[in-house]
Design brief:
The chain contains ten helices and no strands. It is mostly helical.
């Protein structure tokens, strides 16, 4: 029924929005990039997150992610790569050169890397996104849904991701935030880097537990 499909789309929209708002690797990256570099860099990292989110959603809807989850070796390898990337990114942020009080002088350590690519890899490196979307779609997507429904899901995720992460980038790149960031950059970088490292170690620990449980 059309009404059931609309309710399902509303549920998908709410769940995705809540997931995006809850602080995670994506939000940390966009916030750090916008505050430490520039508004354009923050928006580029946000665009990378949106594109990668769209990739996860499309793969999940097409059933490819389900096949990946069933291929245990490939899935575990993806989790390992994701954990390593989070730790690597966290260390880079943690050790970043303090930003100059002059807003036109971005920090060299970050400007060498593409914010867009960082956004893409941060999102794609998180295998929990695959599990999340497979679970959500298995629960909410009705069997035999028409093509317009799937297009609507992709459109909703794209629009909401763009609005939220774009909002984060715009707010964190304002002159007020950047002035405060300049004075607190050393501590903020350590917190942001530490959070990313914790995400990576947590993911690695979950992988270790799963491998031990599958062995015994």
């Amino acid at each position: 029924k059309p009404m059931d499909l609309l309710i399902s789309l509303l549920n998908v929209s709410i769940i995705h929005l809540l997931m995006a708002i809850v602080p995670g690797p994506n939000t940390v990256l966009v916030s750090f990039t916008a505050a430490s570099l520039s508004r354009s860099a923050g928006l580029l990292s946000a665009a990378g997150v949106v594109v990668a989110s769209l990739i996860w959603v499309t793969l999940s809807l097409s059933g490819i992610i389900t096949l990946l989850l069933k291929a245990d070796i490939l899935y575990q390898a993806t989790r390992l790569v994701g954990a390593a990337y989070f730790v690597y990114t966290g260390i880079r942020i943690f050790r970043a050169i303090p930003v100059s009080v002059q807003p036109e002088n971005p920090r060299p350590v970050s400007s060498r890397h593409s914010p867009f690519v960082a956004g893409v890899f941060t999102t794609l490196s998180n295998p929990k996104s695959a599990i999340f979307w497979v679970s959500v779609f298995a629960l909410l997507v009705p069997g035999g849904a028409p093509l317009w429904y799937y297009c609507a899901v992709v459109a909703i995720i794209t629009v909401q991701s763009t609005i939220w992460y774009g909002f984060v980038a715009l707010v964190l790149s304002t002159s007020v935030v950047k002035r405060n960031y300049a004075g607190l950059s050393s501590w903020i970088d350590k917190v942001a880097g530490g959070v990313m490292i914790v995400f990576g170690l947590k993911l690695a620990n979950e992988l270790r537990k799963d491998l031990l449980n599958s062995t015994f």
